[in-house]
Every structure is written in C-alpha cells, then in structure tokens.
Amino acid sequence: MRRIHSKNTIPELEVRKIIRGMGFHYRLHGKLLGKPDLVFRNKRKLIFVNGCFWHQHPNKRCKDARIPKSNREYWGPKLKKNKRRDTKIMRKLIEDGWDIMVIWDCQIEKRGRLTNRIKKFLLN
Questions:
Q1: Is 10-123 CATH 3.40.50.720?
Q2: pTM higher than the cut 0.70
Q3: Where is 46: in which H helix or E strand?
Q4: 40-74: pLDDT as tens digits
Q5: d(CA 46, CA 32)
Q6: Residue 66 has what pLDDT?
Q7: Are the CB atoms for 67 and 79 separated by under 8 Å?
Q8: 62 Cβ contact partners less than 8 Å away, ≥ 6 residues apart
Q9: Distance, CA of 39 to CA of 60 (rounded, Å)
Q10: Residue 60: which of 100, 104, 91, 90 has the closest Cα?
Q11: pLDDT higher than threshold 90 for residue 2
C-alpha cells in the first residue's frame, strides 16, 4: 500500500489535462475539508477525483468498486468508513456554499462525455 498515492494520480492528471485544455484556472489540493483535488475559488466549485475502489463507487457496473474476496473482515469496515467520511465531508462543504463534482476513475475512459460534464459543471 506504500505505492498508493493521494495526489497526482493518473486519473487526476487526466482530469487536469482536460480542464487546462478548456482554459480554466484552478488550485491543486485545496486546504479545505477533504482536500479536494481541484479548487475553483472564484466559482466556489470543487472537483474530487476518486478511485473507485478506495471510495467505493456506487455504480453497480463498476468492477473496481468490489470488496476483495480475501480478508473481508479488514476491507469491509475500512471501505465503509471511507464512504462515511466522504459523505460527512461533502455535506459540510455543501453547507459552506461549495458546489461539488465527483469524478470516478472509471469515468476517465469516456473522455468526450467527461469533458462535457466538466464544462457544464464549471459554466453553471
């Protein structure tokens, strides 16, 4: 698990490349609750790029969000705790007036669709 990083992941770099290509400016890893990956302070918008496994992507078709078959006693509670923490953080940020977009790493593959979602989120 030492090789698992929370910053500058491949999916995050891809999202940053898309957003830079659109001409938007952002701050990285804001010093806000939950450490959002991209912060658009003047727009009061945040983007989190979540790993499907670590944050348990709720889409049933996502194969990466499954709990491993081995050592379920460890992984089950750990991943549930991650989800509860994420929910609590999102609620607090929304209460503080932030708009939030969560991009799951399995969504990076459909670049055209993702680009449209991001553009719509940032322009509204």
A1: no
A2: yes
A3: strand 45-50
A4: 999 999 999 999 998 999 998 888 888 888 999 99
A5: 10
A6: 86
A7: yes
A8: 52, 104, 106
A9: 29
A10: 104
A11: no
